[in-house]
Structure formats: C-alpha cells, structure tokens
Amino acid sequence: MSERITKLQRWLDLISYLVGRRVPVSVEDIMENVPAYAKKWQTENETDRASVRRMFERDKDELRALGIPIETVQYRINYGLEEIEGYRITRQDFYLPYLRLVHEASPSGERRPYLLKEVVLTEDEARAAADALHMVSQLPAFPFVAEARSAYRKLAFDLDPEVLAPTPELYVHRPDAEAILERLRTLSSALLARKVVWFRYHGIYRGEATDREVRPYGLVFQRGNWYLIGHDVDRDAVRIFRVERMENVQPNRRKPHTPDYEIPADFRLADHLRKEAWELGDEAPIMAQVLFRFPQSLWAERNGYGRKVEERPDGSAVRAFEVRQVNPFLRWLLAFGGEVEVLSPPSLRDELHALARQVLALHGGAVE
Amino acid sequence: MTAEAQLDRVLYVVAAASCKEGRPLAELAETLGVSTDQLMQDLGEVTARIDYYPAGSVESIRIANDGRRIEVWTSGEFRRPVRLSPLEAMALGLGFRALAAGTRASEDRRKELLAFAERLERAVTTSPPEELLARFAVDDGTPGDGSVRAVLRRAAAERRRCKITYLASRTSQPDERVICPYTLTYSNGAWYAISHCTKRGGVRLFRLDRIVAAETVDGTFEVPADFDPSHYITEGRLYRADEEIEAVVRYSPRIARWVRERGPVEELADGSVQVRLRVADPQWLVRHVLQHAPEAEVVEPVELRRQVARAAELALGRDA
Q1: How far apart are the first and last CA of chain B?
Q2: Which of A28, A38, A158, B193 has a CA positioned 20 to 30 A from the CA of residue A178?
Q3: Which residues pair with residue B160 across a beta bridge?
Q4: 10-residue block means of pLDDT along chain B (320 residues)?
Q5: Which residues of B touch A117 (CB under 8 A)?
Q6: What is the Cα–Cα distance from A56 to A41, expressed in whole angstroms?
Q7: What is the least distance, in Å, from the CA of A128 to any CA of chain B?
Q8: Which of A231, A246, A272 is the last residue of a domain?
Q9: Mutate which of A5, A42, A62, A96 to disrupt the B interface (most B C-beta within 10 Å)?
Q10: How confident is the model at residue B55, as a pLDDT?
C-alpha cells in the first residue's frame, strides 16, 4: 500500500467531506479533515500550510470545471457575531435528478436514496436524447466522444434501455479520422482556454503552404469535414480553415490558465454554418446563373442549391448562386458533366470550359 | 489516465454497483468503455486504504471486488450518478441542435426539440452549456429540408417500408421504388440509406440527396440476421461490393499529400501518387475525378478514361 495519496483519492475525500452538508465548512475544517491536506497542515509550518492551501484552491477550481458544484457560502458563527466563508455541496446540485418516463410509476425506497427533483420525459423525448448522444458519439473525429458516452450512461441510469435504443444510423470514419482527431483535440483545448494556435496551412488549390497564427473562435463539423473559424492574426480578419489541411498544430503553452484573447461579442458561429465551399471564400462575390437540365433541376431544388430564378417548360431550371470562391464552384459544376450550363457571367463559363479542356487533354480527348 | 476520467468512472461505478449483488465487472467496464484492468486500477486506488472512511464522516464506503463482480456498500453518499459535467452537457446540446437542424421541414418539431433540449439541459446539468454551444457546432449534412431523412429515420427505427422517388445518376426520369431501409449511413458528407430494394430484389445504396420524395407505405420488414452495414464500407467509403470494378487514379503532386493521408498510395517519380480503387458505381468515380479537376486522372481502365473524357466534352457543350 502506498503512502502517497493520489489525486483521485484527494478529490474523492474532498467531495465526500463537502457533499450533503447543510451547514458549510470553513477552509480550516477542510484543511484539518481531508487527509491529503491534513498531513502538511498539521506540521504548522507556514510554507507547507500555504502550499496545501494553494492545492485546495486548484482542486476546487478543477472540480468546479468538471461540474462538481462546490458552493462558496458566507455564514455566521458565534451567535451571529462573526461572518465567515465556507464551502458545501448540496445533494440537489450534485446528484442527477430522477428521470422517469411519463407512463411509469415513481419507484420508491432503495432506488431513490435522496430527496431530489424528478424529471418526467415522454418516450419521444427520451429517444431524442438518446439519438442526440448517439449521433455525436459516432461523429467522425469528434473530440468529446468520452463525454457523450458518459452523458448517455448517466441519462440511461433510470431509463429502460429499450426506450433508449437509438435509430439505426451509422457514421463511416475516413482513414484519416485519427490524424484529424489529434489536431481537433489540440484545437478544442485551445478554443476552450482561449489560447492562440500556430499551424501550417495548405490551401488545396492555392499553391504554397503558409504559416498561420490564429485565435480560435469556433469549431464546426459540416459536409463531412471539421473547420476552425478564427481570427487570423497576420491577415487581421476572421478566416475559416479546414482541419484536414493543417499541419503541425501548436497551441500557446505559456500561461495555460490565462486566456490570450477575447472572442468578440458580435461573433456568431451560426453565420458560418451550412455554407458550401464556394460561399466560404474571401473574394468579392460573383453572381452566377446556372441552368440545371431535367431531372438535375429536381435534385438542385430538393437540396436547396442556389435560388431558383426561372423554371422552363422542359422541366429545366435556372438557379442563381453567390460565389465567393470560384475554383470549388467550377469543380462542383464540372462533376455534372453536361447536366448543367453556366449562363452568366461569360467569364465563369469560359473558366469552366478551360477546366473541362484540361480534363479532356489529360484523358486523351481531342481538344480544339 | 487523467484523474478527471478516473473520478468520472469511480462516481459512476459506486452508484451503479451500490445495489444488492452489485454488478459484473466486465459489464461495468464495457459500459465505461475501458478495460477491466483499468477499472480494477481505479477501484484499487479507492480501496487502497483498507478501512476507508470518507473524511470527517462516520460512514464507510466498502467496495467488494472479487475480480468478477463489484458490490458497493455505502449508507451515505454516492449512491446516485452526478449531474452532467459542462462538456457532457455540451455533447448532449450539440446532438440536440444537430437533430433540430435536420428537421427544417417542420418548424413545430424543430421548436419542440429545442425547447425540450433546454428543459433537459437545465434539469440535469450543473450549469447550462450555452456558452460552450456558442463555440462548437455540428451540421450532420441532412440534405434539403430534412423531410426525407425524417421519414427514413422513422421508417428504419420502426421497420416500415417506404415508397421513394429516386433520381439515379445519369437517368432522364425519376424512378419510383419501394425500399426497406435497414440503416442510414453517413459517409464523406453524404447520407445513404442501405436498403432492400424490392424492384432489384437485393440490397442497394440510395443517396438521400437523390431521393426527391419519400413516404411510408403499408407493410413492415425484418432486417436479415446476417445484415452487417460494415460489409458496405471499405477504406472509409461506402460501396456495394457485388458489382465492383477496379480503377487506377493518378493524383498530381499538388494534392498528393491529402491522398496519402487517406490510405495506401503508389509514389511516382514526379511526386504524384497513384491509387487503386474499387468502385461499385463508375459514375461515382467519374464525378470524383471531375471534382478534382485537373489534379486527378483515371489511368485505367480505358473505358473509364473515355467516360471522363465524354463528361468533359458534354461540359463543353459538345454532343460527342
């Protein structure tokens, strides 16, 4: 048996000491009664005492960050003559409330050891919660899978597993998911602590790689890819980066507990969601009109690509697009072969044709 | 192993196993997603001090652990899981918001889901995750207004047959089919329904963005016992194995680095890479090469090279 008290033991001791108390306890009580602190506290050496006090402060902060509701309370002693500060954890705040499905009877006795609130759910709601957690825990390279699973375990504690059976859905992970997860772990920690990150960025069709210094504002999963949105320090503007194209992601490791920056109050992550690659660029927008032949016109309508400006008798449709990045737009259009046609502007049409000629040349076709 | 993760596991195990006869060790380890060794180590730390009395209390926590079952006696605290941590609450909230975003067809359903999410988040967490939810977002790529996916999800969950209007690639007319959706699968940014197709009499993949309309029809189905969605996945891609062709694609030095990350490649002297791909749908490969224009080239088979060339000619408006 080791003499050393591990961090887990210290934390459990501290929580045990505080939980379920009506009357708060003072910091001196904690120092004297929690074994990991008591040893040094009892030496009565001021340096030792100061060091365990600091240890307690750090433990308190870390446990609070984990959601352990250590409450700081002002209370009076000596017949109300003296006000001091104390700590406690109330059961209501600490334990998960009892969850019950609406058609079930409330269980009693052993299964309800404490006086806690009850949350009543419909089956539909319980299934939605299970689906929500199932979805994120399967999401490729999601950096908080452990948290999603742990949340599911807690919610499933009282509920019938049948009701929580998720909808049969499966997310396929690409072979590079592991490498991306690694970068996302670094990026999400930096985002949560608001620390600057450095990385080398390869814009896929944009020539040379560049070194970037970015203040992370948000992380987004969309269209099968993870994106970092942040303030690019050298360009002094908000930019969006595909995590897949980053290399050597390094956070600022100095002063890990002090944020490097503030996120502007008017920044909204939602403004960057549900965007296509050609809508994400920094170029001045070009208005393009594209003809979709039938039945691709149905497909474009069904999936909401562009805005319909005209429907023709043969079932084809003209749709308008706001293009901020030409290259991905052209490559998207090219994949339709002859099913789409750029009507305007002529320059865009020419560029699409130039790209098609390059493909043709590569594949041995006759180029005029 | 961090103390954070250990604390999370220990608090869960104590709550779960503080019942008559406790719980099997293997079951607890599986629920927690760790090895039984790891779990034994966690509990070892708690029980290292044999007569462990929580500080300042007269009640003991006793953990019986015979290597197979865990049983906990505690007359005092920890007989219940703790509330969701901020990051757990964020994971839940992200999932709810993605589900809600996928139901754009029904504003009522969307509002209902978000209202429930907020009610649950307030009830089960220490502090609601609003601030964290402003930093992370997930859009799981539900195409269109989400109505087709909503119909298919429900049908898959309840094993109901569906009638769909499908736009197969390179067809001139949408086609009506009755399908039994076994599972919905997300791959590289697109949703698919792996389904039994009654018209073809076999399992087929249907891209959700190509399903123009869907409704459930009379009749339920059973998923065959030997159905395994992983049979349709290779190297992170979804495909049907019974009609595959093999192709070789060359990627230019410019994009070679991204191709290397995704799987085995053959390095060429000029810095480009070649990849051997098995594909079920040649049209998929034609689109794939066009989307990477002009950095990708079909090397073989010759027939596929012709198809890419033809697609390029059509894009030039030539009736080749």
Answers
A1: 63
A2: B193
A3: B220
A4: 88 90 92 92 76 54 82 84 94 93 82 94 90 91 84 92 89 90 90 92 90 94 92 77 82 87 88 89 88 92 93 84
A5: 123
A6: 11
A7: 8
A8: A272
A9: A96
A10: 54
Contact B60/A at CB under 8 A: no
Q: Is A87 found in the same domain as A102?
A: no
Inform me whether the C-beta atom of residue B46 falls under 8 Å from chain A C-beta atoms. yes
Give per-residue pLDDT as tens, A16-40: 899 878 889 999 999 998 888 988 8
The rounded distance, in Å, linking the Cα atoms of B194 and B196 is 7
Instruction: Say whether A270 and B137 touch across the interface (CB within 8 A).
Output: yes
Q: Averaged over A267-275, what is the pLDDT?
A: 87
φ, ψ (nearest 5 deg) of residue A352: -65, -40
Contact B308 A269 (CB under 8 A): no
The distance of B70 to chain A (nearest Cα, Å) reads 17
Is the CB of B262 less than 8 angstroms away from the CB of A19? no
Q: Do the Cβ atoms of B314 and A337 come within 8 Å? A: yes
Q: Which residues on B lie below 8 Å from A14 (Cβ)?
A: 55
Q: What is the DSSP letter of A19?
A: B
Beta bridge partners of A216: A230
Tell me the residues of chain A between 51 and 80 that have a Cβ less than 8 Å away from chain B. Answer: 62, 65-69
Is the alpha carbon torsion for A303, A304, A305, A308 positive or negative? positive
**Closest Cα in chain B, distance from residue A330 (Å):** 9
Confidence of residue A2 (pLDDT cuts 50, 70, 90): very low
* CATH code of domain B3-74: 1.10.10
Do A195 and A149 sit in the same domain of this protein? no
Give the domain-ending residue among A45, A73, A93: A93
Which pLDDT belongs to residue A367? 61
Note the pLDDT tens digit of each residue in A213-236.
999 999 999 888 899 999 999 999
Closest CA to A187 of A175, A198, A172: A198
A355 touches chain B (CB under 8 A): yes
Nearest to B4 by CA among B90, B95, B86: B86
Pairing of the two strands A237-242 and A317-323: unpaired
Q: What percent of chain A has pLDDT over 70?
A: 96
The mean pLDDT of chain A is: 90
The answer to the question of residue A339 being in a domain is yes
Nearest residue to B153 via CA among B98, B199, B201, B107: B98
Overall domain count for chain A = 4
CA gap B178, A271 in Å, rounded = 39
In a domain, A177, yes or no: no
A103-138 pLDDT tens trace: 888 776 667 888 899 999 999 999 999 999 999 999
β-pair type (A82-88, A71-77) = antiparallel
- ipTM passes above 0.85: yes
How far is the CA of A324 from the CAs of A186, A330, B244, in angstroms?
30, 12, 38
Using only C-alpha atoms, chain A has a radius of gyration, in whole angstroms, of 29
* Contact yes or no for A244/A180 (Cβ under 8 A): yes
pLDDT tens sequence across A41-57? 888 888 999 999 999 99
Which helix (H) or strand (E) element contains residue A211?
strand A210-222
The model's confidence at residue A1, banded by pLDDT at 50, 70 and 90, is very low
